[in-house]
Design a protein that fits this description.
By secondary structure, the chain is an alpha+beta fold. The protein has a single domain (10-197), classed as q2cbj1_9rhob like domain (Jelly Rolls, Sandwich). It has 4 helices and 10 strands, in the order E-H-H-E-H-H-E-E-E-E-E-E-E-E. 28% of the residues are buried. Bound molecules: fe (ii) ion. Fe (ii) ion binds at residues 122, 124, 174, 189.
Length: 216
């Protein structure tokens, strides 16, 4: 090894959490009411195409895959409202991390784990910044567990509580440990990618990846 370097993970606690929590839960309410349908879609995706098929223990409820059948830009319906609620923390992230503007949220989804359910080790792609907001997390439930790139023998359980949001590099391997509680554990996650400063909107295409040359 030539040298060690640090991997940035930022954590913030949302202010006025009780009020924001009820707003977020009401934004997600329509999704929760079709949870069985969403779970079934997720199972099919795991079986058919996603790399998670190698992780038989992965079993959570998520609307993640809806972005593949609809336009990520407009999906999910709660993305704009959620970003609005998170603006204070996003501004703190820009200030603390020194990341240059501008980043766009390119994908957002929620995840719910019932008792015994777990989300196996995964990452969110090669570049960008990922976020996890802990919407329902009781004192005995664990948050995200991060893993070393070189194996799962080194793991870091972040000390988080409900109402916290964390930001980390997309490529950093992580997972949601088994929910040992009767209460459901709920998170909202999203990815952000840097866009060219002169662009007002990002229209993804297969050919313009060279525009996004800055890794974070
Ligand atoms: Fe994740």
């Amino acid at each position: 090894m030539i040298f060690n370097y640090k991997i940035p993970i930022f954590k913030y606690s949302l202010e006025d959490w009780d009020s924001k929590k009820s707003k977020i839960l009401s934004l997600l309410e329509t999704k929760f009411s079709s949870s069985e349908q969403i779970r079934q879609g997720y199972r099919e995706q795991i079986e058919n195409s996603h790399g998670l098929r190698n992780q038989p223990t992965t079993e959570v409820e998520t609307d993640f895959y809806e972005g593949f059948t609809q336009n990520w830009k407009d999906t999910p319906h709660y993305k704009g409202d959620m970003i609005e609620l998170l603006l204070p923390e996003l501004r703190k992230l820009v200030e603390d991390s020194g990341i240059p503007p501008r980043y766009d949220a390119t994908a957002m989804w929620y995840e719910r784990a019932k008792k015994t359910e777990v989300h196996g080790v995964h990452d969110h792609g090669a570049k960008g910044i990922s976020a996890v907001l802990y919407v329902e997390l009781n004192d005995n439930q664990k948050g995200t567990r991060f893993y070393s790139e070189w194996g799962e023998d080194f793991a870091l359980d972040l000390d988080v509580k409900e109402g916290d949001i964390i930001f980390f590099p997309c490529w950093l391997k992580h997972g949601g440990s088994k929910n040992t509680e009767d209460e459901i554990r709920t998170i909202v996650s999203f990815n952000m990618i840097r866009i060219r400063p002169e662009e007002d909107e990002w229209e993804p295409s297969d050919t313009d990846y060279q525009n996004f040359t800055v890794h974070v």
